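Shipment paperwork, digital attachment
Item: protein structure file
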Amino acid sequence: MGLINKQRLLAALSPPLDHLLCTQLLDEFISAERRFIQRDWEPAELDGGQFCEILSRIYYHQDSGTLSQGKDFDSCCGYIENDNVPHKLNPRRDALHVIRVLRTVYKFRSQRGAVHISPNYAPNHMDSKLVIECVRWAMNETLRLFWQGDREAVAKAIRELLQFDVPSVGVFDGTPLVQRTDLSAEEEILVLMHFAGDEGMSRSEIGKAAQRAPSTVTGTLQKLTGPDYRQLVMLKNGAYRLTDLGSKRIREQLADKLMLQ
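Attachment content:
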């Protein structure tokens, strides 16, 4: 239960990826996501650049067979782009696509002034959105190429990585808890459903997690699954999960509720 987390990703990617580089990559990815959610535009761009540096080392390692945990970004990319050296990654075009995206992000955040203080530039939402979407694509492509295990599991991981992180939800003794006190019953249950990801949560699990009276939980679930809302759906196994309409409401109306107060 819950959106795919760092430990599960690390176990599925390392090996074949170097454990330290993979750990650093996931740390930067999670940091960039959280900064973006919190509307902290400049750190989101900086995190994106650091993500690119680490991912370029990962692709260099996989393509050359040489592990270098400190090789500079341009040298890593240059090796992968070089037609005159041996390459282990096949098909090579997949690595080249990723490197082109990484170069775009790295050059953009540098020339826009995100690396150095600039009197002519202030980071904004659109710039950070470009960076975070490129980072998400590169992370998803890396999962597709290097995930060790069931292909349906990687498809699920990719879908879940396209969702927001949920800093406002903690897990205590295996039970999620929305750590905000300013949400309506509808909002609390939608945030829990977002946290639950594709697997959703059963009525019993929702009852344990939601800090609401049982009658309130039941009434809210009936409302959110009803014809006027259709923001939740009950799966064949009895679990509830978000519909596309529910995800749209999270993105457009409740993004700030995913943060801690």
